[in-house]
Design brief:
This is Large ribosomal subunit protein bL9. 34% of the residues lie in helices and 31% in strands. It has three helices and nine strands. The strands form three sheets. Strands 4-9-8-6 form a four-stranded mixed beta sheet. A hairpin with a 5-residue loop joins strand 8 and strand 9.
Length: 148
Amino acid sequence: MKVILTHEVEKLGQPGDVVTVKDGYGRNYLIPRGYATAWTKGAQRQIDQINEARRRRATEDLESARESRDALETATLQIAKTAGANGRLFGAVTTADVAAAAAAVTGKPVDRRQVHLVSAIKSVGEYTGSVKLGEEIVANVKINVVAE
């Protein structure tokens, strides 16, 4: 079955790509969730529109992502969490917390799924992580967790 991807699907493709998948995967997973539409000759126009929009966004996003990367790599993200007397946090610092701190530094929204932490942050201290800002643009960030 041929489908047109409308969203990015890991290990399958980008929006606008025409891919061949097994019938069940297309009918039962991709199409009902809105990740793809069935391919027809008339849908070729939709493919062209998606590809054109992606090309326009790519040049704008590349410059914006480079600026955001520079801002994130020079700054240290400060996150305040409730901690016990020994420095252990009540809970943990999540990727959503790091994304919110990164968004405050860059002034642009950062999705929590773009953040990668090397290990779970469960105590006060300094840590490192990375934020994927674009196709090949990754910012290495320093995270300083302090007690509230």
